[in-house]
Amino acid sequence: MTYHVDLLLDDERRSASRVNVGMMLRLGALLAAAAIILITTLLFVASRDVDLKVAKAKATWEHLKPQYTELLALRVSLNELRASSRQVEACRCSRLALGEELTQLQSGVPEEIQLTVLRFNQFAGNQKAGAGATRSYEMHLSGRVSGDNPKGNVDKLIAYLSAPSYTGRVETVTVPNNAFRKETVRISAAGETRTDWFFELVCRYRPRSFE
Amino acid sequence: MKLSAHDRQRLQWGLAVLIGGTAVLYAYIHLMIVPLMQVRVEGLNRLAEYQEQIDKATLDLRSLEAVKAEVATLQAGLAVITNRFVICPVLGSTLVTVQSIVEPIAQECGLRIESCVERGRMEAPVNKKDAGFVIDRYLVELTGSGEYAAVRDFVQTLEQTNAYVCVTDVEILGRGEDAMRHKARICMEWPVFGEHKAAEAAPARARAGVGARMEDRP
């Protein structure tokens, strides 16, 4: 019979393994310190790299800046010039060349028609500043018509004003109510009279845009 | 479980090291790592801003020559138009300028001018928000007498002489006593420099190189 006498106290017991808690803790602490140093170094390097890139970008921007400032100033000038030009061109674009209209009208009035009043009017169109601003014109004609077929002669004039040469400009040609009428006029002091046909005609032009 | 004095001491040491290590780590992260990361993030943001500006500028600068050319063309064109066609007052009167233009034309066309009066000014109804100067329409009414052909030629010549003058109204009335000579009334709009916004307009006009004729006058 063998006796085993254990004289070790509990706090005197040690593990036979080489991997113990103390060593694990020391190793962990070492690894943590190494990781912290590595992270810090990487961050330093990355920050320095960013700083270098920022400095390079700044230098590039400083190089471009004068040209870019010049471009911005030129754009402001361009806008100004365009706006000024738009104003000036509005005067040209919106006008109806009445000289041409007078020439064209003359060649289309039948011989039997004698005009007594010719009136081109610019009437109030939309003249508020903006994209929709327009000028509108109307032509009023009054006259005397002779010949065998007075109504036919007036119709000829209406047809002329509605012809393709006027299509782009003229919107409507109308004879107002009771504007085609017969009147007796005195032609001599002796009391001789003559019956004439009178007419009125309104020709409305298409509005002309200011822009 | 009851711990021995030695175990208790070890546990206390372990806890002290753990608390101390955590505190040091916390301080290190807050005092070193976080500022470093903030610096890096700020740097990256600045870099992105610079890069965005550089990209935009590089892209825009491709059009620099085209913009320069357009400005030069517009300046030259506008200078010609404003110097030739936008009328300026003579001796302080715009009407005198108009008269000096229309009278020779009327004489040449055989239109006898009876009166030439000013009918006010109107602004051009266009957006002039960015405009360097303002163009107004100077209204003039002219009455006279002549043949139909004289009125027609007068209006036509006037419109050909100045592409920016607008004849707004023409009235030709037959006269019983003289079938060939009619009464005529002609209304015109002449482009003139606006009186308002003049303070702002002057430098812009100088920049645009327009209106020199007016300034050059003695």
User: What spatial form of chain B do the alpha-carbon principal axes imply?
Assistant: rod-shaped
Mind describing the biggest β-sheet of chain A?
A: 6 strands, antiparallel
Largest interface: A-B, 69 and 82 residues
Label the CATH architecture of the largest domain in chain A.
Answer: 2-Layer Sandwich
Average pLDDT score of chain B: 84
Instruction: Name the CATH homologous superfamily of the largest domain in chain B.
Output: Ribosomal protein S6/Translation elongation factor EF1B
CATH topology of the largest domain in chain B: Alpha-Beta Plaits
Count of helices of chain B? 6
C-alpha end-to-end distance of chain A: 125 Å
CATH top level assignment of the largest domain in chain B: Alpha Beta
Order of helices and strands of chain A: HHEEHHEEEE
**Largest sheet strand order of chain B:** 1-2-4-3
Please report the total strand number of chain A as a whole number. 6
> At the third CATH level, what is the topology name of the largest domain in chain A?
Threonyl-tRNA Synthetase, Chain A, domain 2
Query: How many strand elements of chain B?
Result: 4
Sheet-strand content of chain A, in percent, reads: 15-25%
Class inferred from helices and paired strands of chain B: alpha+beta
- From the coordinates shown, what is the CATH architecture of the largest domain in chain B? 2-Layer Sandwich
Give Rg of chain A in angstroms. Answer: 50 Å
Shape of chain A: rod-shaped
